[in-house]
Structure formats: C-alpha cells, structure tokens
Amino acid sequence: MPEPWAGPGAGLGERATLVQFSSAFCAPCRATRRVLAEVAALVPGVAHVEIDAEAHLDLVRRLEIVKTPTVLVLDAAGRIVRRATGQPRKADVIAALGEAV
Predict the structure, then answer these.
(1) 39 contacts: CB under 8 Å, gap ≥ 6
(2) Per-residue pLDDT tens for 72-96?
C-alpha cells in the first residue's frame, strides 16, 4: 500500500512535507496541527498533511508510530528525513525543515 502522502494530489509539498499522525482525542495533536499549519503557511513549497492514526493502523505499524502526535519531515521526493513525537515548537519545526530543503 503506498503511503497516503505518495499518491497524486495527496498534498506532497514542492520542497518538503510535514506529515502529522494524530488521534481523535489527542489534545497535543490539535496544538501540533496549528503549529505545522503556521509553518507550512510561512515557508514556501512546504505542505502539511494530517493522517488519522486509527484509520491507518497498517501504516502506523510499518512506520513504528507509537504515540500521537508523531511528525515526519519529508523531503521533496517524499523520503523521511526527520521524525519527532510530542508537541513540537515552531522553531524546532523550522529547523527540521532545513534538513529537508
């Protein structure tokens, strides 16, 4: 099964993509969504894709996602260059993007 961000029109960013794994009752996930959306709006060519972990359990297992929120930073080709768990700080997300672009 291809990753949800790999298909046509899936929102892969021109320069990088922030993939967020969330769950329905995760308060830090909501805050993470806001931070990643702000960064994606600030940095040209960066997209934010949110994936419901419960709806994609096969992908969660394959990528060894053990808690939400988990954020993957993908480069322009869709390769994972960085991953982090927990609620990120905006400055840390911007710094992580430096590795992808």
Answers:
(1) 18, 46, 48, 90, 93, 94, 97
(2) 999 998 899 999 999 999 999 999 9
Quote the CA–CA distance of 85 and 70 in Å, as a whole number. 4
Distance, in Å, from the CA atom of 28 to the CA atom of 11, rounded to the nearest integer, reads 23
Strand partners, 82: 73
Query: What's the CA gap between 50 and 46, in Å, rounded?
Result: 13
| Phi-psi sector, 83: left (phi>0), alpha (psi -120 to 50), beta | beta
Q: Which pTM value belongs to this model? A: 0.90
| Strand-pair category, 16-22 with 80-85 | unpaired
Any bridge partners for residue 84, and if so which? Answer: 71
